[in-house]
Design brief:
Function: Methylates the class 1 translation termination release factors RF1/PrfA and RF2/PrfB on the glutamine residue of the universally conserved GGQ motif.
Catalytic activity: L-glutaminyl-[peptide chain release factor] + S-adenosyl-L-methionine = N(5)-methyl-L-glutaminyl-[peptide chain release factor] + S-adenosyl-L-homocysteine + H(+)
EC number: 2.1.1.297
Largest sheet: 8 strands, mixed
Number of domains: 2
Radius of gyration: 21 Å
CATH topology of the largest domain: Rossmann fold
CATH superfamily of the largest domain: Vaccinia Virus protein VP39
GO molecular function: nucleic acid binding; peptide chain release factor N(5)-glutamine methyltransferase activity
Pfam families: MTS, PrmC_N
Distance between the termini: 78 Å
Structural class: alpha/beta
Shape: elongated
Order of helices and strands: HHHHHEEHEHEHEEHHEHEEE
Number of strands: 10
């Protein structure tokens, strides 16, 4: 019996994923086939009629079983693109999501309103995980130096590897601490995507999140706001006059987060910025200039 061609294998995988009601079956099949064979889109097209080797078939079969079991494609291939940067993942890091790019967008808008983006800046990302937000900002701020903190040493190792991969290591420093606990000096911008899922809601998350993202990066306590209560006062004490704190928020949390910022002496920098679904996703507070 002849081995399937690359194209036939891709189509068969897409059909299996569709039958399992996977929403992005065609895209998943293309990505997984390409990863199993070490081919990009152009390579998949040019190799469409080549027969798979036995090793390639076994690798693709293993990927299919993992995907059908609910493992996200990004976990299977070990990386995810964020803000145009290819980021490695680990068991200690969240899969970066498009919603989080809203935080980057708002942070850049606020910095742009305050002056030239080419000026020297000192920025921090609290709970950096894979380094996604920090590295996205550094890629847009050529004279900035960034500090990424995380309580997880494994996450910091992943973030440092991503900084090296993006040629940003010379402007990124990673610190093991709880939010801003290990930082000193003043900052022109602080950002964070902390855990904000209510503890009781964890069991109802999508399987891809519930079973594969680290619980510590999801669970925000009884009301989802525990992390904000810790990090907002810390950040407020480190912001330079006129500087901003920008955080990601869960649905329905922007108001309570703004109240926590006000209590810490910050003023609303702008209205919360909505993600593509219309949910207020990025919340910012300014430290008033003296």
């Amino acid at each position: 019996m002849r081995a399937p061609t690359v194209e036939a294998a891709r189509r068969a995988l897409a059909a299996r994923l569709k039958a399992a009601a996977m929403e992005s079956a065609e895209l998943d099949a293309r990505i997984l086939t390409g990863h199993a064979l070490g081919l990009d889109l152009t390579g998949l097209i040019s190799a469409a009629q080549r027969e798979l080797t036995s090793d390639e078939s076994a690798r693709l079969e293993a990927f299919m079983r993992r995907r059908l079991a609910g493992e996200p494609v990004a976990r299977i291939i070990g990386e995810k693109e964020f803000w145009g940067l290819p980021l490695r993942l680990s068991a200690a890091t969240l899969v970066p999501r498009p919603d989080t790019e809203t935080v980057v967008e708002l942070a850049l808008e606020l910095l742009r309103a305050g002056g030239d983006l080419n000026r020297p800046l000192r920025i921090a990302d609290l709970g950096t995980g894979s380094g996604a937000i920090l590295l996205a900002l550094l890629s847009e701020l050529p004279a900035a130096h960034g500090f990424g903190t995380d309580i997880s040493e494994a996450a910091l190792q992943t973030a440092a590897a991503n900084a090296a991969r993006s040629a940003l290591s010379d402007r990124a420093t990673f610190v093991a601490c709880d939010y801003a606990g290990g930082l000193s000096g003043t900052f022109d911008l602080i950002v964070s995507n902390p855990p904000y899922i209510r503890s009781a809601d964890i069991a109802h998350l999508a399987e891809e999140v519930r079973n594969h993202d680290p619980l510590a990066a999801l669970d925000g306590g009884a009301d989802g706001l525990d992390a904000y209560r810790a990090l907002i006062p810390q950040a407020a004490g480190l912001l330079a006059p006129g500087a901003a704190l920008v955080v990601e928020a869960g649905e329905g949390q922007s108001g309570p987060i703004q109240a926590l910022m006000t209590s810490a002496g910050l003023t609303p920098a702008t209205a919360p910025k909505a993600d593509l679904a219309g949910i207020p996703r990025a919340v910012a507070g300014h430290k008033m200039a003296r």
